[in-house]
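User: I'll paste a sequence; please echo it back and then give the predicted structure.

Assistant: Echoing your sequence first, then the prediction.
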Amino acid sequence: MLCQGACQKHCYCSKKVYVLAYAALLYLGSSLVYLVGTTCLAYGTPFKDTLTVGQRRVLDGSKQRRRALFAAGVAITSTILCATRPLRSPSRNVL
């Protein structure tokens, strides 16, 4: 059937589209968690916080913390996406 306007019940997308859409939502959510964590929490930003000779050392030390923060964002967003299933497919075995 031809879909016009808002997506209707008879419209569907391929499995690839759903996987890419979920990947995009996952990255978006993880980036938001990372952004909030670096601006509002105690993570800070290495180049703004220190402008000294030890700047490189601060950067190296912060890499692990930032990587862990982004991984936490991936985990949180994955949980939210699995719980809410914002993109539904007519076939039950897509995700």
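The chain has one domain: 15-84. The mean pLDDT is 76.
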